[in-house]
Write a structure and sequence with these properties.
With 348 residues, this protein is of the alpha/beta class. The chain contains ten helices and seven strands.
Length: 348
């Protein structure tokens, strides 16, 4: 009886072990049979907060974890001297195939990743809340601003270049600002500022600020008396009249006569060109030129005779005027050869 009970107990324990093994295999089969890829990247900054086992996210989705953290010279630059070695931090990650499944890459190669790298695929360190821990974020950035770190070796695994972290950029900016502030001579700057304030006070003190203020108040008071409402209404009326004038002008220009005016002008110009090119017009012009030349020659030959004739006419006109004056004064001379003696009345 006791042997039978022990047999049942042993069978129960064995069944529980087998069942537990089956459950473990069932729960972990997805992880065990999921294909992973080794990826490495290099950082030229501090990786504080990043540890082995830290998550790797692709646009916020967990796709792997950090598997190793070391320096690049420990693997690729053993044969170089210390002065020639690069001080990059090598971070290796184990990524799930889910990251590449969306891109149709069941077995990604470096050439496929280089295509995405050219589009801006980068790895950067991102802080995880206020706990001080960090994780790796894989995302697309601007390839022009996210320059790749230079190196001369060929990576052993798939490689995606890194980008400076936000915290690193902030720290570097703060360090640059502090370095610039340290170069500033604060004592000399303060002394110059004091001198500037003294000079400004000396220049402003002689100014009649009270008088200027009173004049400003007077000007503002006069400006307040301007009939702004009336000016605004008149401006509005002027705009309305301008619109009406524009409409009237458009209506005039839309009349058929104005529409056909350019064509009429073109036709008139064409007719004028035809008339000007007529041989009869050219012949008439030549004839007029010949007549003008003949008149010029005739005027030149008869110029002296015409002058003499004009002188004779002037002399005759003067004699006739003298005769008329005498006749007007003494009409008897027109009938008698001698002048009549003046009448003398008889003496008483």
């Amino acid at each position: 009886m006791e042997q039978k009970s022990n047999f049942r107990l042993g069978l129960f324990i064995l069944s529980a072990i087998i069942l537990g093994a089956i459950l473990m295999i069932g729960l972990g089969s997805g992880r065990w049979f999921n294909k992973t890829f080794q990826l490495e990247t290099y950082f030229n900054e501090s990786v504080q907060g990043l540890d082995i086992g830290s998550k790797v996210r692709y646009r916020g989705v967990v796709v792997g974890e950090v598997s190793a953290i070391t320096f690049t010279y420990a693997r690729y630059e053993q044969g170089l001297s210390r002065t020639e070695r690069l001080q990059y931090v090598l971070v290796e990650t184990r990524l799930s195939s889910d990251m590449f499944a969306s891109k149709g890459l069941s077995n990604p190669q470096q050439s496929n990743i280089d295509v995405e790298v050219a589009k801006g695929l980068r790895v950067k360190i991102a802080p995880q809340g206020l706990t001080g821990t960090s994780y790796l974020e894989i995302d697309y950035l601007n390839p022009q601003t996210s320059r790749q770190l230079p190196f001369s070796w060929k990576p052993d695994n798939l490689y995606i270049p890194s980008a400076p972290s936000t915290v690193g950029q902030f720290v570097n900016g703060a360090q640059d600002l502090m370095a610039k502030l340290q170069k500033i001579d604060l004592d000399q700057t303060i002394a110059r500022l004091d001198q500037l304030l003294i000079t400004a006070e000396q220049k402003i003190a002689p100014l009649p600020l009270l008088s200027i203020t009173q004049k400003m108040d007077t000007v503002l008071g006069r400006m307040a008396q301007f009939p702004l409402n009336q000016i605004a209404s008149e401006a509005t009326g002027l705009l309305v009249e301008t619109r009406q004038t524009n409409q009237a002008l458009q209506s005039v220009l839309a009349q058929p006569g104005w529409v056909s005016a350019p064509a009429d002008l073109a036709q008139a110009a064409q007719d004028a060109r035809k008339i000007a090119s007529d041989p009869a017009i050219a012949s008439a012009v030549q004839r007029m030129e010949r007549v003008t030349q003949r008149l010029d020659r005739l005027t030149a030959t008869q110029e002296s005779e015409v002058s003499q004739l004009i002188e004779n006419l002037n002399s005759s006109s003067a004699s006739l005027k003298s005769l008329l004056d005498k006749v007007e004064q003494q009409p008897s001379q027109l009938f008698f050869s001698q002048q009549q003696p003046p009448y003398v009345p008889p003496k008483p």
